[in-house]
């Protein structure tokens, strides 16, 4: 028995991470789209603590939190496409930067498309400064882990399709500020596992625009 179910929401950059990891490993799974305003009994049962997506259910057992799920997928299906580095130090570094992305990028991105006036300008600067740090960590490597696509790439690339909405609402260009990072993102998107797993940037923009209206920002 090897039943795999993913509880997810199409626009989630965290869900996109899990979809990419499963695609990299070639794992067949059942995808269940969640309505986050009306969460399913299955989601509430499988993630009673946070009540959030994504949740991977493997043979009836739930695993929550996207980075933990990606690591689980890498450990369980370890016969192909390793995601985490084999070297303990490099593995620790990858986890450090993935944690940095979770703690910094998400909040900063959220402020860019919800803030107004001076707050928005400060949010844009903070967001770009964070991306510049990540660009420095990338350096001249094709991927964060070196020559092969892996854990840290998965941790960040789910934010890439959101850049269009952030740039449009914030009136700035990520590529102008962080050209190497955009080059990296485009390179990642050439992989079928990534291109098929990422949400459409125009649809994300429309989704964000609707959210802004309901929040009274527009």
UniProtKB/TrEMBL annotation:
According to its UniProt record, the EC number is 2.5.1.18
Q: Which SUPFAM superfamilies match?
A: GST C-terminal domain-like (SSF47616), Thioredoxin-like (SSF52833)
Q: What is the name of this protein?
A: Glutathione S-transferase
Task performed by this protein: Is involved in the conjugation of reduced glutathione to a wide number of exogenous and endogenous hydrophobic electrophiles.
Taxonomic path: Eukaryota, Viridiplantae, Streptophyta, Embryophyta, Tracheophyta
Please report the organism this UniProt entry assigns to the protein. Answer: Morus notabilis
Q: Which domain of life is it from?
A: Eukaryota
GO cellular component entries: cytosol
Q: Name one GO biological process term.
A: glutathione metabolic process
Where the record annotates domain GST C-terminal, the positions are: 87-215
Compartments in which it is found: Cytoplasm, Cytosol
Family label: Belongs to the GST superfamily.
Q: What is the catalytic activity of this protein?
A: RX + glutathione = an S-substituted glutathione + a halide anion + H(+)
Which residues does the UniProt record annotate as the domain GST N-terminal? 2-81
């Amino acid at each position: 028995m090897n039943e795999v179910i993913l509880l997810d929401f199409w626009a989630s950059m965290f869900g996109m991470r899990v979809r990419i990891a499963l695609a990299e490993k070639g794992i067949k799974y059942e995808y269940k789209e969640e309505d986050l305003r009306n969460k399913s009994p299955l989601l509430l049962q499988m993630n009673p603590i946070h009540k959030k997506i994504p949740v991977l259910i493997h043979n009836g057992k739930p695993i929550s939190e996207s980075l933990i799920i990606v690591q689980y997928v890498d450990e369980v299906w370890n016969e192909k496409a390793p995601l985490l580095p084999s070297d303990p130090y490099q593995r620790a570094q990858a986890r450090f930067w993935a944690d940095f992305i979770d703690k910094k990028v998400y909040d900063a991105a959220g402020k860019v498309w919800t803030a107004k006036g001076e707050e928005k300008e400060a949010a844009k600067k903070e967001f770009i400064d964070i991306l510049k740090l990540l660009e420095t960590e990338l350096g001249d490597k094709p991927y964060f882990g070196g020559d092969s696509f892996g854990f840290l790439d998965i941790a960040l690339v789910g934010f890439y399709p959101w850049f269009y909405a952030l740039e449009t609402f914030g009136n700035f260009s990520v590529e102008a500020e962080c050209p190497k990072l955009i080059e990296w993102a485009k390179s990642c998107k050439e992989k079928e596992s990534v291109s098929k797993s990422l949400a459409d940037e125009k649809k994300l923009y429309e989704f964000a625009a609707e959210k802004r209206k309901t929040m009274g920002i527009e």
